[in-house]
């Protein structure tokens, strides 16, 4: 890899890192009583519970609704991450099966010539 290629890769990594910081996914429960926001890696940033959730004393149902809402927020964030990194992926990459943590790196590395010292 040339110095220019290394610089371009470094610039791309910096741009990706900056873009990842801005990505969030938010979802609301179907009844609108639960709202969850997650970061680009799926980390929970905010969970809002409307006080009306306590009118229904079923804690298992509440827990399931919270988990489902968080999962939908994670899916929303992952769609944004995929859009950000898709230039580093094969053209036929599928958001449902792409490992967004490693696939962009592995794809870019696989295109690089190998040199052994």
UniProtKB/TrEMBL annotation:
Coiled coil: none
A GO molecular function held by the record: DNA binding
Keywords: DNA-binding
Protein name, per record: DNA-binding protein YbaB
Provenance organism: Crossiella cryophila
């Amino acid at each position: 890899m040339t110095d220019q290629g290394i610089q371009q890769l470094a610039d791309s990594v910096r741009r990706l890192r900056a873009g990842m910081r801005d990505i969030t996914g938010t979802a609301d429960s179907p009844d609108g009583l639960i709202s969850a926001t997650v970061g680009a890696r799926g980390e929970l940033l905010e969970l809002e519970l409307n006080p009306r959730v306590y009118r229904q004393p079923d804690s298992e149902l509440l827990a399931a609704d919270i988990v489902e809402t968080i999962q939908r927020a994670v899916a929303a964030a992952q769609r944004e991450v995929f859009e950000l990194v898709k230039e580093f992926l094969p053209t036929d990459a599928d958001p449902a099966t792409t490992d967004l943590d490693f696939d962009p790196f592995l794809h870019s590395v696989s295109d690089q010539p190998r040199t052994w010292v």
